[in-house]
Specification:
The complex is a heterodimer of chains A (about 325) and B (about 210). With about 325 residues, chain A is of the alpha+beta class. Helix content of chain A is about 30%, strand content about 20%. Chain A is built from 13 helices and 12 strands. In chain A, the strands form 3 sheets. A 5-stranded antiparallel beta sheet of chain A has the order 4-5-8-6-7. Chain A has a 4-stranded antiparallel beta sheet with strand order 9-10-11-12, sandwiched between helices. A 3-stranded parallel beta sheet of chain A has the order 1-3-2, covered by helices on one side. In chain A, β11 and β12 form a beta hairpin. Chain B has about 210 residues and is an alpha+beta fold. Chain B folds into 2 domains: about 80 residues, Roll (Ubiquitin-like (UB roll)); about 90 residues, [2Fe-2S]-binding domain (DNA polymerase, domain 1, Orthogonal Bundle). In chain B, α4 packs across α7. The radius of gyration of chain B is 18 Å and the shape is globular. Classes of the chains: A alpha+beta (about 325), B alpha+beta (about 210).
């Protein structure tokens, strides 16, 4: 591991100052991903700012919804009464990810910033990776790409975003509050992560040196039912091949009043399934309509040599998640 | 494994092996420049420690190499196997992914702090009684993890297989719940049946 200097900050202002928006600075919260990437030599910061003691570790009612501090652990968020009772799909998604040990360490803010588990990104012995070495190419496109993206990828990068939690946050229309050297701002969840395009090395719209302070959830959809479905190679402690978060509000005759669907494991960001949502809104929820909606969402899917199975899997996962949510 | 004589002779053997490897232990990094070492104070197994530590050192390496406490094991060193599980302020974590400095001021409990050969922790006794190990390398992590897990259940923390997530619901500690909650601890010898049985027996005793 490359040597680095280390500072612990007690306040947000102190942390932003200590980071200084310098290229080689990183904030460290739980460290579950950053320390691992530093061991691998993928991340080589020369300055770490410990933000784990910042007073951003509470969950409270806020603006009719809930504000979750960025330093709340994944465990504490999943287990909090406000989340379990009003946003259970978020608890489900968090609990579906990682292990209890990791969820105890991992922070809510850090979860948003975890890096892809693309094998070629994670292993610097592969020269080709446009995320690590912009302009070097993408080893995954012609390599082993079973876990890779089928939506929104580019010729530069076909990695996926690994988070379960973020899929639920996309379906819940969360807002990310950030503070940086130039003040504070709010970023809509859908605008937080970026698709690869020609700059896969830029993963979020967070500016370097900005700190996530909280994740805000809007008032829970009245009468909404929700479900998080995760499909993976083993029953526990594995990343999603495909996952779906569905939040649906039905009228008594099962007409869809409002629905939000997000997919994980298929793109470099949590994929908001707008085509499927539009195909369902205003219609009575039945099997044929669901199949149509799923087909529309995946109409532009582009599989690679090893991940063609994800296209049909994603369709069926949408159908099952929405059906379960609406049950 | 129910024979106590057997048990202690095995432990003695492990003790000698550990002493041997401790003598050979080397630090993971070349000596760091002065501005990259920091004072770190921790309470480990009830005892205060104050050391100057290279910022790159993980909690796991600090325990094993700087403090000569090799009970906590290094398996994958990437947070995938759980062999390095310790309790920090009562919560189980992967010590391989935590920089030692991040734990400054915290209370750490390792396998050495749970029991002694003469006074085993109930979870250690249960692992012996239920043949919950073969090679034993994952066992310290399994036991620390299991002890923390039963506390989590007691406090009402849900898991991915908890049927009712609502905050007022009780947790029914089924075998599926135990397996899900312990999925962060891999056993290459596949002693999982024994591990679940051991944890179940401790949970039953606690409930009784």
């Amino acid at each position: 591991m490359k040597p680095f200097t280390f500072t612990r900050s007690a306040t947000v202002a102190e942390a932003i100052e200590a980071h200084g928006a310098r290229e080689e600075s990183r904030f460290i919260g739980g460290g579950t991903n950053l320390v691992d990437l530093m061991k691998m030599g993928v991340e080589r910061p020369s300055h770490l700012v410990d933000i784990s003691r910042l007073p951003l570790n509470t969950i409270s009612e806020y603006n009719g919804g809930v504000r979750i501090g960025a330093m709340v652990s994944n465990t504490d968020a999943a287990g909090h009464a406000l989340i379990r009772d009003s946003y259970p799909v978020l608890s489900q998604a968090i609990l579906a990810g990682a292990s209890q040990q990791l969820r105890n360490m991992a922070t809510m803010g850090g979860n948003l910033l975890q890096r892809t588990r693309c094998y070629y990104f994670y292993d610097p012995t592969y020269e080709e990776c446009n995320k690590r070495n912009p302009g070097s190419g993408c080893a995954a496109i012609h390599g082993v790409n079973r876990i890779h993206a089928i939506l929104g990828a580019s010729s530069q990068c076909i990695a996926t975003h690994p988070s379960d939690m973020c899929v639920a946050l996309a379906a819940l229309n969360a807002t990310v509050q950030v503070t940086g050297p130039n003040g504070s701002r709010a970023i809509a969840f859908e605008d937080f992560h970026r698709l690869p395009g020609n700059t896969p090395q830029i993963e979020t719209n967070l500016h370097h040196g900005e700190l996530i302070t909280s994740i805000d959830l809007p008032a829970a959809m009245l009468g909404a039912r929700a479900h998080y479905l995760k499909v993976r190679d083993r029953n526990s402690y594995a990343f999603a091949l495909v996952s779906v978060a569905a939040v649906v509000d039905l009228s008594p005759d099962r007409t869809v009043k409002s629905i939000r669907i997000a997919l994980g494991g298929v793109a470099l960001k949590p994929w908001r399934a707008r085509h499927a949502e539009n195909a369902l809104t205003g219609h009575v929820l039945d099997a044929a309509r669901l199949r149509t909606a799923a087909e529309r969402e995946l109409a532009n899917a582009k599989p690679y040599s090893d991940n063609g199975f994800k296209v049909e899997l994603a369709k069926r996962a949408i159908i099952r998640a929405v059906t379960t949510a609406a049950a | 494994m129910k024979d106590q004589t057997d048990h202690f002779s095995r432990r003695d053997f492990v003790g000698i092996a550990v002493a041997g490897s401790a003598a050979l232990a080397t630090h993971s990094y070349a000596e760091a420049p002065a501005d990259q070492t920091h004072p770190c104070q921790l309470k480990i197994n009830g005892k205060e420690y104050s050391i100057q530590i290279d910022a790159r050192t993980t909690l796991l390496d600090m325990l094993r190499e700087n403090l000569q406490m090799p009970g906590t094991k290094k398996g994958c060193d990437h947070g995938q196997c759980g062999a390095c599980t310790v309790l920090v302020n009562g919560k189980r974590i992967n010590s391989c992914l935590s920089l030692a400095l991040m734990n400054d001021g915290m209370e750490v409990t390792t396998i050495e702090g749970l029991g002694t050969p003469a006074h085993l922790h109930p979870m250690q006794t249960a692992f012996v009684d239920n043949d919950a190990l073969q090679c034993g390398y994952c066992t310290p992590g399994q036991i620390c993890s299991a002890v923390a897990m039963l506390n989590e259940v007691k406090q009402g923390a849900p898991s991915a297989v908890t049927a009712d997530l609502s905050s007022h619901a009780d947790i029914n500690l089924t075998d599926d719940e135990i397996r899900e909650r312990m999925s962060g601890n891999i056993c290459r010898c596949a002693a999982y049946v024994g591990i679940v049985a051991a944890i179940r027996s401790v949970a039953r005793e606690k409930a009784a």
